[in-house]
Amino acid sequence: MTAASESRFSRTLLIVVLILTAASALAWGHYRPLDQDEWFVFQTDTVSSISKLVEVQRHYPISLDPLFYHLLGHASTSLFGATAFAIRLPSLLGFLLMQVCLYFVAKRIAGNFAGFIAAIIPALTATLFYAQQARPYGVLLGLGALLLLAYQHGTRDPQRTGWLIALAASLALALNTHYFAILLLLPLYTAELVRIVQRRRIDWPMFFAIAIGSAGALLTLPFQKGAGEFRKHYYNVGKIGLHAVTQSYRALFLNYTQYSLRAQHILIVLLVVAALVLVGAILVRFRANDPTVPLAEKAFLLVLAILPFFGFLLARFVTHSIEVRYILPAILGLSVLIAIAITPIERNAFRARALVGIVLLLLVGAGFSRAANARLQRPSLQMLTIAHAAALSGPIYIQNMGHFDELGNAIADPAVRSRIALVYSAPLEIALAHHDTQSLTAEHMQHFTGYRIEQYEDLRSQPGPHLMIVYPGSGWDWLDSALEQDHATITPLGLALGGEFVSVAFSAKENR
């Protein structure tokens, strides 16, 4: 096979990977209803205008991200309607952009086969979840991969003006997609510092491109105050341990929370072994490719791959809060490095073709399995199962924000849906759940969602009876504890929306 025909075949494989990835994500998303965080994005991005969107994100955000991602969601829902598909579309496009960029990055380093492997790895891992979730992470991955590709071309190509513009733009937009995108500065700055030391001079056009892109962080400042309110009593603020690092790596490749603690310990051991093997293979490959792979490029990839360690340090000493999804860009460096490490397989044509066939089959199988599991796990919206429920009047109060969003918005019957109301209390949530995340969200939602939202203290001043759905033991629901603390009279009425449907009456003493 000639070099030209091999390149055409490689690009055809890339197109196949993109089609299969999109099909898997769309099928998965079709059967998976919007989750709580996605509803926050949906409520934010479907406001009436861009000016309203800016107002929401500045003063009373419920989705705590900078503006750019929400502008994409607003544009998508304006073009395609206020649907789950439209609000998730930016994430899918960002994920596909990531795959294209990884293909070209790895191809330039180690050839067509490496490009194909780098593009398909994220779709075979748990990272694919973010291609069909209406959160900023799919877009962040796409912009991070574009930044990597732009840097590669910006340091290698003589005609690089367009790539330097792409570098500045992708960096600025990434910083305005998610606050933890600031971690992307580490691999970029490290790579350019290595390059400056090697060259013994500053590449001023590259320096200015990086500086302009970094200055994009200033655009997030007007939105940080509104999001910063949540830091005072945020739900996962606390001591950050080194386990956050292993959790981050495990979360990149599989949903480890579905496994037992013993299985997770085994996974950690396997992860360490795999990391050692990968490091050894990378050292061998990079040593062999020293003349063709710039040291700065190697530094970029390696720092990307160890991003969870820097995420841990940032959380430990600055934010005091982290989620494993915040360091997702590590998959960019890992995908390219893994692809480079296994390129020796390409020397044997049969093994290379067999591996291509296997990973394509895995992609199809994984896509089918994910869609099938999502279909089986769709929540059944169990309605009020008692015979006289339809005759009961008045609002039906839910305190658990997750159930309020996921279930209340999914109820088909408008008569029932209109009765769902949210109850909140910052003092009680802090006292009983040790955070006020849901209460702050409820307060902010009152400014632009149109939902019926009431304070628990106001509800308690009315004797009732009040219809409520409680979710004891959910970890997020403090309502049952508050009712017990207030010595309310609780009459069980049956089951509703996955919780316990009750009638509540407060005593005269509590009403005073």
UniProtKB/TrEMBL annotation:
GO biological process, one term: lipopolysaccharide biosynthetic process
Every Glycosyltransferase RgtA/B/C/D-like domain range: 66-209
GO molecular function: pentosyltransferase activity
Main location: membrane
Any one Gene Ontology cellular component term annotated for this protein: plasma membrane
Keyword Nucleus: no
Subcellular location: Cell membrane
Keyword Lipid metabolism: no
Topology with respect to the bilayer: Multi-pass membrane protein
A Pfam family reported for this protein in Swiss-Prot or TrEMBL: PMT_2
Keywords recorded for this protein, A-Z: Cell membrane, Glycosyltransferase, Membrane, Transferase, Transmembrane, Transmembrane helix
InterPro entries: LipidA_mod_glycosyltrf_83, RgtA/B/C-like
Membrane spanning stretches: 12-31, 85-106, 113-130, 136-151, 163-186, 206-223, 266-287, 299-319, 326-344, 350-368
Name of the protein in its database record: Dolichyl-phosphate-mannose-protein mannosyltransferase
